[in-house]
Amino acid sequence: MKSEYNVFEPAGFMGKFIIACPEWIKNERVKKIYSVSGCISRDFADYIKYWLHNKFWFFNEIKQIQEICDKEAIDFRSLDILFYEVYYFQFFEERKSWETIIFEDSFKTEIQIPRSLEFLGHDIVSYYAGSAHECSVLSCNGLADEFEVNEHCLITDFDLTKSLVERLQHCEPGPYRIIRVNKANLAA
Fold it and tell me: How far apart are CA 59 and CA 14, in angstroms?
C-alpha cells in the first residue's frame, strides 16, 4: 500500500521544444517554460498516432522518441528530453478530494530509469479526458504570475504545490495531477 504523502511513480520520457517565457507571463523569474503541457513548449511530435507511448502517455525509453523523430524528420538534438514522475493521487476540485489515479494498464509500461536527472520542479496538469496530459495551469492559465514558481515556470516545493492545487478555482477542467519534471542527462 502506498502512503498518501509525496509518493511519485516514474511516468516516462518526453521530447520537448522548450521556449523562452512569453511576454504575457509577467513573472520576471520565469526564463523558460518547462511545462508538461504542449500548449507553450510543445511536445516534439504528434506522437500518439504511433502508439509507442506507455500508460502515462509518455515514453518508456528515449529510443522511442528517436524512432519517431527519424520518421518525422525531426532533429533529435534540438529537443530537451524530460523525465516525468507522477504523484500517485489526483485532485478533484468539485469534490475537494485527492483520489488514487487509475491508469489504463493495457499499454506496455516498462520505464527505463535514467542514471542522471536534474530536478526542475513540479507542474500542475489538468487531465479532464483522463489519459494524456492537457494544460499546465502555471503556464497556460498564467498562474505563474500569482504563484511562487522558479525560472522553469515550475514549483520546487512539493508541499507548496499540493496546497496550491487544493486552492485552484475554475482553471482548466480537472482533475489535476502533480507531475515532477526532471531533465534527463543524456551524457551520463
Answer: 6
Q: Is the pLDDT of residue 126 over 90?
A: yes
Chain position carrying cell 508538461: 36
Could you state, in order of their start, the residue ranges of all structural domains in the chain?
8-184
Three-class SS of the chain: CCCCCCCEEEEEEEEECCEECCCCCCCCCCCEECCCCCCCCCECCCHHHHCCCCCCCCECCHHHHHHHHHHHCCCHHHCEEEEEEEEEEEEECCCCEEEECCCCCCCCCCCCCCCCEEEEEEEEEECCCCCCCCCEHHHHCCHHHCCCCCCCCCECCHHHHHHHHHHCCCCCCCCEEEEEEEEECCCC
Q: How many helices (H) and strands (E) are present in the chain, helices listed first?
A: 3, 7
Q: How many CB atoms lie within 10 A of CB 76?
A: 16
Using CA atoms, how far apart are residues 188 and 119, in angstroms rounded to an integer?
Answer: 15
Q: Is 163 helix (H, G, I), strand (E, B) or coil?
A: helix
* Cα separation, 56 vs 59, whole angstroms: 8
pLDDT for res 2: 44
Spatial separation of the C-alpha atoms in residues 18 and 63, rounded to whole Å:
20
Q: Which amino acid is at 141?
A: N
Q: What is the pLDDT of residues 35-84, one digit of tens each?
A: 999 999 999 999 999 999 999 999 999 999 999 999 999 999 999 999 99
